[in-house]
Amino acid sequence: MILADIKTTTWQLSSSEFGAIVTEIDDISQCIMLIMATQKGSDPLNPLFGVDLMKWIDKPTTVMIPNLINEITRQVAIWEPRAIVGKVTYQKEEGHVTFDLQWTSIGGMSGNTQYTYSL
Fold first, then answer.
1. Closest residue by Cα to residue 36 from 54, 53, 15, 20
2. What's the pLDDT tens digit per position in 37-87?
3. What pLDDT was estimated at residue 107?
4. Cβ-contact 103, 76 below 8 angstroms
5. 3-class SS at 66?
6. Fewest CB atoms within 10 Å of the CB: 11, 14, 44, 102?
């Protein structure tokens, strides 16, 4: 892939495939996943970026889940203005919880991003 082959201004290197790029809806989804995967405070140049999982990790599920949903939704609204989060669902299994975000881009495209936290 050479830079001249990229026909959009919204792109980035893929986090899952070496040398590949993601564009448009996949770019937004990857940005959302990066927000969810980053522990707030772990980026020294941007300490407010990410989700504060550690704040909720030892709380009861009835407290942890709604607070993480709120935290994820707020952080996506702050750091990924191209997406509007609609519905957030989760699946809790022993040792981890998977959040599924359904969102719509400013351009009207629908997307879905999942991320699993180990507990």
1. 53
2. 999 999 999 999 999 999 998 899 999 999 999 999 999 999 999 999 999
3. 85
4. yes
5. helix
6. 44
Question: What is the CATH number that goes with domain 25-118?
Answer: 3.10.450.40
Span of 3-7, 20-24, 48-52, 114-118 with lowest mean pLDDT: 3-7
Q: Where are the domains of the chain?
A: 25-118
Quickly list DSSP for 18-52. TT-EEEHHHHHHHHHHHHHHSBTT--TT-TT-SB-
How crowded is the C-beta side of 118, counted as CA atoms within 13 Å? Answer: 0
Is residue 12 within 8 A of residue 21, CB to CB? The reply is: yes
Contact yes or no for 35/43 (Cβ under 8 A):
no
